[in-house]
Amino acid sequence: MECIILLMIQRYLFWKQLNQFGGIIMKAHKYWSIGAIVTMVGTFYTGYKGLKAAHKYFAFGSLICMIMAVYSGHKMISGNKRTRKQVENTKAEE
């Protein structure tokens, strides 16, 4: 139980730190991730019901959402290289 609480606090602090640097990208990542989850549920449901046409569209939508979620997550974590170099240069000058 204590490990779960500790992991939740650690995750919250990590996302809070990322939100300070890339708020817009983080929002995009969150929305693409939610879209991926919704389309995956739709894919499973339509596959279970045997609706082949709808299943195909939900699967394609899920694929697009997952690609965009990975891309926005990469942009959120990697940051801007120019900004990083400028910060390193100012620290070296001081």
From TrEMBL:
The lineage of its organism: Bacteria, Bacillati, Bacillota, Clostridia, Lachnospirales. Pfam families: DUF6219. The chain crosses the membrane at residues 31-48, 54-74. Keywords: Membrane, Transmembrane, Transmembrane helix. It comes from Agathobacter rectalis (strain ATCC 33656 / DSM 3377 / JCM 17463 / KCTC 5835 / VPI 0990) (Eubacterium rectale). InterPro entries: DUF6219. This is Uncharacterized protein.
